[in-house]
Design a protein that fits this description.
By secondary structure, the protein is mostly beta strands. The protein has no helices and seven strands.
Length: about 110
């Protein structure tokens, strides 16, 4: 068995060799390591091959690692210091991510 399509160490197999009895099944555990995964989608295949390298079976896997997230609180105030409604845009610093419009209600807090 081998892992194809994922960066080294992101997906590991508990066993890399299986013997499947006639008309039977065999199993191993596939583990994804979020600490080693890049942010975003990772996908690939678990491939079973015979001794000559001929692919006998394969199955797909995938995992998603989200970027770090933080709580953002915005207090909007008018010139006198009172809570005020407003429309604003929140820009995430991730490349290629569009700004998100946000509406702050009468409480002045988003």
């Amino acid at each position: 068995l081998s892992v194809r399509g994922a960066p080294e160490g992101v997906v590991t197999l508990a066993r890399t060799s299986l013997t499947v009895p006639a008309h039977g099944t065999a199993a191993t555990t596939v583990t994804g390591d979020g600490a080693k995964a890049p942010v975003g989608d990772t996908s690939g295949q678990i491939v079973a091959a015979d001794a000559s390298g001929t692919t006998l079976a394969h199955t797909a896997f995938g995992l998603v690692k989200e970027e770090e997230r933080y709580t953002l609180t915005v207090h909007v105030k008018d010139r006198s210091g009172a809570a005020a409604p407003a429309d604003l845009t929140v820009q995430r610093l991730t490349e290629g991510v569009d700004p998100v419009p946000a509406h702050v209600g009468e409480s002045g807090t988003l």
